[in-house]
Amino acid sequence: MATRRPEAARQSGRWAAALRMELFAVAAAAASLFLLLVFLIFISVY
User: Fold this and answer.
1) Which residues cross the membrane (predicted)?
2) Residue 37 lies in a domain
3) Which of 1, 12, 17, 30 has the fewest CB atoms within 10 Å, measured from its CB?
4) Does some domain include residue 43?
5) What is the secondary structure of 5-38 as a DSSP string?
6) Would you state the pLDDT for residue 6?
7) Residue span of the structural domain in which 46 resides
8) What burial letters (b/e) apply to 12-22, b meaning 16+ CB within 10 Å?
9) How far is CA 17 from the centre of its chain?
10) Does residue 3 fall inside a structural domain?
11) pLDDT of residue 11
12) Which residues contact 12 (CB under 8 A, 6 or more apart)?
């Protein structure tokens, strides 16, 4: 079977979208933790 069925293509597209959303969630969590760290350093200095 060289050609993929349309539902298989849809499944891979859904998987790519889910992976993209998961990567965005991880990046947002990392950015919020970084901002929290900067805020805590700022508070401890002043």
Assistant:
1) 21-43
2) yes
3) 1
4) yes
5) PHHHHHHHHHHHHHHHHHHHHHHHHHHHHHHHHH
6) 62
7) 20-46
8) eeeeeeeeeee
9) 10
10) no
11) 75
12) 4
